[in-house]
Each structure stands twice: as structure tokens, then as C-alpha cells.
Amino acid sequence: MSNDIFIGGGGPEYATQQFLDIGYANRHGLIAGATGTGKTVTLQILAEGFSAAGVPVFLSDVKGDLSGLAKSGSADHKLHEAFTSRAEKIGFRDYSYSAFPVTFWDLYGQQGHPVRTTVSEMGPLLLAQLLGLTEAQEGILNIAFRVADEDGLPLLDLKDLQALLVWIGENAKTLALRYGNVSAASVGAIQRRLLVLENQGAADLFGEPALALADLMRTEADGRGMINILAADQLMGAPKLYATFLLWLLSELFEELPEVGDPDKPKLVFFFDEAHLLFDDAPKALVDKVEQVARLIRSKGVGVYFITQNPADVPEDILGQLGNRVQHALRAFTAKDRKELRMAAETYRENPRFETEEAIREVGVGEAVTSFLQKKGVPGVVERTLIRPPSSHLGPIAKAERAALMAASPMAGKYDDRLDRQSAFEILRKRADDAAAEAAKAEEEAEAEAATPSLREFNNARRYAGKRVARSSSRAPRRKSQEGFGAAVAQVVIKELKGTTGRRIVRGILGGLFKGR
Fold this sequence. Notes:
517 residues, alpha/beta, 18 helices, disordered C terminus
């Protein structure tokens, strides 16, 4: 395996050859440039280089073009002559066509293997960003996660979180004593945003089996690293979902991977395309988390490369950590554009042979201004570079080819069937059912007790009737005594029937007789 990745070169006005040292690839990087200037091809040749060096790659395919990595380039391609001419011009003598190992992933499970995580793993900070919650609503979301942890309620999918929020709304007064005010309006607002998220297809993202990070860090038997491609053309319709998912994945890598210091080569290279979506309107807490991850994750052997149209899309604190840079052309049509172009040029180590700002404005399609880290992590002098042609197919592959690759993948069948084990939704529903059954039983017992004359009432009636009989026994014959006893009992019963208990008995009897009517 080579210790560097060939990027390009050129003629007299260009750098002779430019390489990315694989040992400094985990120091992160930036690929920037206006639309149509060649960022996608640069991403493609970097993915090829890392794979050839035995480094697994994860990238998102926003336009659908990067699926061509799975297919070898061909002399029949319309740009074949241009490719071979470019390779000869930059001294790329080993240029040849080749396919690379690829695994396709898709949050919606259509153009790749399903990708899932759980609500618990996403966490309240990222979920609040995904939902666009206010500070008060985010506070209630944090209460929900705390209650779930303390009560043993696994939050796996959206219906778990929705059920828990219903429970929190019903027990708001009790929870307020411990966690502070829980507004029913805020709970309702979160539920509505969850519904919007569900309509965008986020229900497919949350659930089990969750993605195992080890499945992203595989190598082939020949030593080449696996290129994991996330289908993002449909996902871009929900940009917050896209950005939040990639940030979650980056955070999971940061939290789960062990420290490795400065390895000979990265354990994984992560490309974050359309990076501006991550930082647009992002709260400071989220930007701080991204900065922390970017600063510390390199010690875990992960390189992160942001792809965006303008370097100004990336906050300065994060931009300062991106040592390997490929800057395609920037267009300056307004005063703001010129200011941003000047700022982009000032971030490079100057080259006395040309003006960096002018070079960034002038480079054509397939050309770039580049700077890569050298020994001891020192930034290299900025150079104008002709980017080398790709070895894999330029452009998307056919649907049948994608389907065949998915069927032959080791990941086939592992994530296809969704699991739905007992979690917060099922536990809370069982509690509600049990409580309803107990309440119904208690009500039935109360009604039955109210509908039955008490033993004391019966004994009182019997004693009263006995006294009446005793008083009249001395004045009446035996037959009269029997009649008197019966009459006395009848009077007592009639009196009781006139009371509340009596009315319940009659209502019970008549209700049974006339129920059919």
C-alpha cells in the first residue's frame, strides 16, 4: 500500500505533482468551490485513493453520481481521451481503469441497505436541533429523556417518544415539583414537530436493528478499504434530517472508538458533503459540539473532510483545523463574494509564483488551488493543480447494477427487517391498560356492594318483624299470628324498598327484565 494519495500536477505554471500524505489524512480537510467546478470528481479520486491505501470511507452521494465508484471506467466513455491526455500531462503514468469495493446505504431503504439509529442514541441535543425546538421545548425533551432513563423506558423509535410525551403531559403537575414547569402547549408543539418529521420519512431512521459502526470500517480480502455510499439525493429534501444524521454518525464514532494517537493511516475517512447545512442557523451549543468532535476525533484515527461551496460556510474555529485543502474556483460577483474570496486566499501559505486570490478566481473546471500537510504537520505552500482523472466510472450506475451489488453485499438481509421489541410505547400502554382494568374492577365492586342490602339492614328488619309478632301473639290466634308475621315482614320490606337500597334492587331487577327492550 502506498503512503500517499496522488492528487494531480500540471505544466510549468502548476505544481509538478501534489500528494496527500496518508499519515496526515486524519488531520481533516476541506473541498470547496462553486457549483460545477469539479468538487464531486475530487471527492471521487480521494475516495479511490483512500480505498487503495486500505482505508474505509464513508461519503454521501448528494447528486447520485458517486455510485460510479463501484464500476470500472471504460475506454468507451465520452471523456476517455480527455482523461488519458490529462493523466499524461500531469505525469500519472500508472493511470488505469478500476472498480472499487462499495456498500450502498439509504435511510429510506430504497437505494441501499437501511440505516437506523434509536431515539436514545440520537440524544436530546441533536433531536432538538432536528426538530428546531425552542429553549423551553428543548427543556421538556430533556425531561423526557431523564424520565426514560430513571423509569427504564427504552426510547427506540418515534412512537416511543410520542407515547412518553403523552404520559408527561398527563403527569405534568407531578413532574413540575421535581423538574420545573411542564407546559401542555410546549408538549403539544413537540408532538406536532415530531409529526412533521415523521411525514418526512424520519420514522425509517429510528428503530432497530441500529447501524453497527464496525460495518462501516470493513476492508476487502485484497486489503482495499470499503467505500460506504449513503444515497442522499432523496434525503436532501429534508436537509435538517440529513445534517443531523451525519452529525450523529460522527458523534457515535467519536464516542465509541478508542484512542489511537497518530496512526500510520486513518481507521476511517468521513466526507461531509453540503456542510453548510450543518451550520445554517445552528445554535452555539451544536457548533461547539462539532468543534469538539473535529478537534478530538483525529486522535481516534478518523479523518473528517467537509465539502461545501465556500469556505466561509464553515465556522472559523473548525476551519482552522482543516489542514488538507482543495480549493476549486470561487466566483466573485458581489462585494460580499470578493470579501469571502479574499478571506479564503488568506488562509493559505503563500506561493511567491502567483497571487492566491487571483488563482482561486481563475482556475477552471477540474483545476484547483491545493495545500496539503507536510512533515510534522506543517501546511504546504499553496499550488495550482490539475486534478487527476478518476479510475472508476464517472457518473451513476444503472439501477440493475446497483441492485445486483446490494444483493451480493455481506450486509444484505442484516438490516432489512425492522425489529419492534418491548420499549417505552409498549410499557406505557400496558401500564395504562392495567390501570384501566383495575379502575373498571373497582367500579364493578362498588356497584355490586351498593346493589346488595347489607347484613345489618336485613337483621334489623328481621328483629323489627319479630317484635311485632311477639306483641300481637297474645291477642290473635295462631293463624292470625302467622298472617301478622308475614304482614310485618312485608311492611318492613316495602319500607326498605322505598329507600335508596330498595330502589337499587328494583332497578337491578327491572334492568335485567327489560334490558332487551
